[in-house]
Amino acid sequence: MANVRLSHASDGELLARAAHDAEAFGVFYDRFEAELLGFLYRAVRRPDIAADLTAEVFAAALQSADRFDPQRGSPRAWLFGIARHELADTWKRGRVEDRARRSLEIEALVLSDAMLHRIEHELGGAGAVLELLGELPDDQRLAIEGRVLEDRDYAELAASLECSPSVVRQRVSRGLRSLRMRLEQSR
Question: What domains are there in the chain, each with its CATH number?
Fold first, then answer.
């Protein structure tokens, strides 16, 4: 891979190099930072907490990059799995843990009011859609959240929702159709 430019490397190749190549992890970070921040912001609805969680997730990912196993899923799914774990721990403890960030000696991120406002402004536009999403039947809402917001594959979702992949596809399709109709009616 020495001859391959990092910007053209696959996510898996970047993770394989991350333990000994900070630049490779930087490229991986750049690819997923906005999406991960958006996912966490939608979950907590607070830009400061979403930013802290994002930092902790990437620190934990850097610490465990050498344990990434492509046989178990994509690098993106692996990263978002770490994010779901950190999010669950945050809800349980009532605060963001910063163990990984501290062990790597990464200083805490200090966000200005302008930065917090920017996060809210850029990510808050999804509020109406998320509100409508919450009004869908649980089976459709869970299928859409898993497939669209978390980008989980149909087989993984089917296993967690205890149904077949075709049923998950149907729930996603019906839910998205319903969301589209509701959005058009609200305009």
Answer: 8-111 (1.10.1740.10), 126-187 (1.10.10.10)
